[in-house]
C-alpha cells in the first residue's frame, strides 16, 4: 500500500486513467474538501459501454448523435471521477480543483457542494443496480481520497439536491459501501 502522499499528485489519483476536462475552477480559499458525492450517469441513459460520458465531460459530445443529447445540449459539466460498470476508473478534474457535478445543492448547513466535495460518477442509471466491481472500485477510491483529504461525509446527489436529482437512486447499496469502508454512521446519509 503506497503512502497517502503517494496516492495523489496535484490532486490526480495515481490509479485512475486521466482525461482532462476543461470544466472546472478554483475552490474557494481555505475550503476543506470533506464531502464525497456519489452520482450515476450513462449516455444515452441506460446504455453502457460507450465513450459518451467522457465526451460530455470534455465538451466533445456530438449533440446530434442521439435525440437525448439534444436535451442536454451545451451543458458544461464534469466530475472528478467516473467508475465504469467493470470498475475501470477515470479522472477528469484534480481533486484540488472544483468540478461541476452537483449544481444547486445543500448538505448539512452548507450550500454549493461543489466547493467542498469530490464528485464520483458511477456508470449506471437511477433505479437500476450497480455492479460488484463498481462498489469495489468506489470503496477503494473513497478510502484513498479520505486518506489524502479530510473527508467526513459521503452522500448521493439525490441527498444534496432533493427533488431535483435522483441519482444514484434506491438500488444503490449504501449499507454495502459502509461495510466496505467501515466509516461511522454519521458520515453517511440518514437511512430512509
Ligand atoms: Zn448526479
Short précis:
With 192 residues, this protein is an alpha/beta fold.
What this model shows, in words?
The chain has helices at 4-7, 52-57, 67-70, 132-148, 157-160, 174-181; strands at 8-9, 12-13, 17-18, 24-26, 35-41, 81-83, 89-91, 97-99, 106-107, 110-111, 117-123, 153-156. The protein is built from six helices and twelve strands. Helix 4 (132-148) crosses helix 6 (174-181).
List the main descriptive attributes of the protein structure presented here.
192 residues, 6-stranded mixed sheet, alpha/beta, two-stranded antiparallel sheet, 22% helix, binds zinc ion
H and E order: HEEEEEHHEEEEEEHEHH
Spatial sequence of strands, sheet with the most strands: 3-7-6-11-5-12
Q: Rg to the nearest angstrom?
A: 15 Å
Ligand inventory: zinc ion
Shape: globular
List the helices and strands and how they pair.
Blueprint: H1 4-7, E1 8-9, E2 12-13, E3 17-18, E4 24-26, E5 35-41, H2 52-57, H3 67-70, E6 81-83, E7 89-91, E8 97-99, E9 106-107, E10 110-111, E11 117-123, H4 132-148, E12 153-156, H5 157-160, H6 174-181
Parallel strand pairs: 3-7, 5-11, 5-12, 6-11
Antiparallel strand pairs: 1-2, 4-8, 6-7, 9-10
Helix pairs in contact: 4-6
Bound molecules: zinc ion.
Zinc ion (ZN) is lined by residues 39, 157, 165, 167.
Amino acid at each position: 500500500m503506497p503512502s497517502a502522499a503517494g496516492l495523489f499528485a496535484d490532486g490526480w489519483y495515481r490509479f485512475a486513467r486521466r482525461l482532462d476536462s476543461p470544466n472546472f475552477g478554483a475552490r474557494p480559499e481555505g475550503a476543506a474538501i470533506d464531502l464525497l458525492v456519489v452520482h450515476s450517469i450513462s449516455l444515452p441513459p441506460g446504455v453502457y459501454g460507450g465513450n459518451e460520458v467522457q465526451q460530455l465531460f470534455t465538451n466533445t459530445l456530438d449533440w446530434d448523435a442521439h435525440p437525448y443529447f439534444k436535451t442536454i445540449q451545451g451543458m458544461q459539466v464534469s466530475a472528478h471521477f467516473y467508475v465504469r460498470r467493470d470498475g475501470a476508473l477515470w479522472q477528469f478534474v484534480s481533486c484540488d480543483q472544483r468540478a461541476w457535478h452537483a449544481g444547486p445543492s445543500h448538505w448539512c448547513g452548507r450550500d454549493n457542494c461543489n466547493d467542498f466535495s469530490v464528485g464520483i460518477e458511477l456508470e449506471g442509471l437511477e433505479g437500476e443496480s450497480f455492479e460488484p466491481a463498481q462498489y469495489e472500485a468506489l470503496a477503494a477510491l473513497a478510502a484513498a481520497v479520505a486518506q489524502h483529504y479530510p473527508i467526513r461525509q459521503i452522500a448521493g446527489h439525490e441527498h444534496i439536491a432533493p427533488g431535483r436529482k435522483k441519482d444514484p437512486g434506491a438500488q444503490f447499496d449504501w449499507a454495502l459501501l459502509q461495510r466496505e469502508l467501515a466509516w461511522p454512521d454519521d458520515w453517511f446519509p440518514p437511512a430512509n
